[in-house]
Amino acid sequence: MVPHRGGSVVTGRLLIGAPASGNGKTTITLALMALLTSQGKRVQGFKVGPDYIDPSFHHLVTGRPSYNLDIWMGGEADVRRTFLRHSQDADISLIEGVMGLLDGVSSDANWGSSAHVAELLDCPVLLVLDIHAMARSAAAIVKGFQVLAGDATLAGVILNRVGSARHAAMVQSAIEQETGVPVLGFLRHDESVILPERHLGLVTAEETREDSRRKLDVAGQLLGENLDLDRLWRVAMADEHSELADPLPHWSRPAKRPRVAIAFDRAFNFYYPANLDLLTAMGAELLWFRPTLGERIPLGATHLYLGGGFPEEYVEDLVQHPGMMRDVRDRILSDGLPTLAECGGYMFLGEAIWSHGQRFPMVGAIPMETEMTPSLQELGYRELTVLSDGVFPSGSRFRGHAYHHSKIHRASGLVSAYAVSSARAPMAPEGHSSPTLLAGYSHLYFPSAPEAVRAWLEQGLD
Questions:
Q1: Residues 6+ apart with CB under 8 A from 252
Q2: Where does the record place the catalytic residues (predicted)?
């Protein structure tokens, strides 16, 4: 952090974008985070869009939770407030973009895109270019982004998958000659620093912590060998920013403190930090447990939150703990523990998960079975309207996201939890509900409906 003449502080900020997914945004973002943290810098990560996995790697490298900046789910005010609040005590904030720099909600404008976020936050853009099998043509790509980026400032380029120093020099010369945008460095192609992937993207940080940390430390060293770090800092600190975050709303706290049990392990780890922050701001105590290790819902829990993840990858671990699953079922069905389950948590509460043709019995709190499929079943934003009073009041409207490779294999007696409005289906029913359970494939963004979240926390405290 650098003192501001007026007495406040100013921190560096960069948004790391690319022409498309697969160009190396995540690799360069994580390598840069690793490089800067190795030098003792306080780095705050952010992620444009609704993704869970990339922010988990930001957290692994920086030691700080990484927050989503999603204009569609939270609105511009939420994005600005989130960024300012969590960047204030950092030396630099690195925002990893989503998809291509200009890809947002519409193909006709930049609304909701990484460029929109950069413009909103007055954040310089660092463009990552995969230049494998490319030379002078790279300049045309940069030139095109200069034209279409609107008021977002394209301040620098980092080259990825570089074949040699000579290759990098050729591309740098072309870009700087034709666009005036400086090339700040490059990363050679190196198979040893590639992180493992599966159908939803990278294998999560929670599953690969030690190996991923080692690879990212190496990636940071490799990037540092060919990066003009002084120039990068000048770009990041080019403008003075002394904005202060708006204060959080004050939430009156229940007379009895809610104690929310949250499943968190290799199988269940998809939680927006903003959701957890809202729970604690409303007075909740968060109690963590690990179902894959057979840990039961903590004693004294008044609520249960089962997030998404990859339970299908750990069904063999889960079925080793039938006592844990009986306990979850009893706490929900017999004790009436107010429960929210999203995506992987929804599948876990069903009667079984089918994977590779084999049936694995699950909790049995929801009358359905799910099966994994080779093809993507759902991807995109959705707006949800709660259909009946229960965990949330009837009519509550959330914004959220869905991304899954499973489908309902068989079901009987499901009671739809909410109506989903998405690009694919207006107001389609989804999920399952009871007076004390709401479950479905959608991941909810709590700041989009805080009053409904407050109503959930007040449930069952009498």
A1: none
A2: 343 (nucleophile)
In the chain, the percentage of residues whose pLDDT exceeds 70 is 94
Q: What is the pTM of this model?
A: 0.94
Is the same domain home to 358 and 389?
yes
Q: Which of 169, 181, 195, 162 is nearest to 54 (CA)?
A: 195
Q: Could you write out the three-class secondary structure of 425-448? A: CCCEEECEEECCEEEECCEECHHH
Give percent above pLDDT 90 in the chain: 81
Q: What angle do CA 231, 24, 35 make, to 5 degrees?
A: 45
Alpha helix ranges (H) inside 149-294: 165-179, 209-225, 229-236, 273-281
Are 146 and 37 members of one domain?
A: yes
21 within domain boundaries: yes
pLDDT of 206: 76
232 and 296 assigned to the same domain: no
Domain span holding position 427: 259-458
Which residue type sits at 339? Answer: T
Nearest-angstrom CA–CA distance, 95 and 117: 9
> In terms of domains, do 214 and 329 share one?
no
Residue 226 sits in the same domain as residue 86: yes
Q: Is residue 10 part of a domain?
A: yes
CB 56 within 8 A of CB 205: yes
pLDDT band with cut points at 50, 70 and 90 for residue 4:
very low
Q: Which residues are catalytic?
A: 343
- What is residue 249's predicted lDDT score, i.e. its pLDDT? 74
Give the chain's domain count.
Answer: 2
How confident is the model over 99-155, as pLDDT tens digits?
Answer: 999 999 888 899 999 999 999 999 999 999 999 999 999 999 999 999 999 999 999
Please tell me the predicted confidence (pLDDT) of residue 461.
83
For 62, counting Cβ atoms within 10 Å of its Cβ (0-12 exposed, 13-18 middle, 19+ buried), the class is: buried
CATH of the domain at 130: 3.40.50.300
Query: Could you tell me where the beta strands, DSSP code E, fall in 148-205?
Result: 154-162, 183-188, 197-198, 201-202
Give the pLDDT band (50/70/90) at residue 6: very low
> What residues form DSSP beta bridges with 308?
270
> Which residues are registered as beta bridge partners of 378?
404
Q: What is the pLDDT of residue 379?
A: 87
Residue 252 lies in a domain: no
Judgement on whether residues 265 and 222 belong to the same structural domain of the protein: no
Same domain, residue pair 263 and 213: no
Sheet with 352-355, side-by-side order of all strands? 358-361, 352-355, 368-372, 406-411
In-domain check, residue 242 = no
Which CATH number fits the domain that encloses residue 416?
3.40.50.880
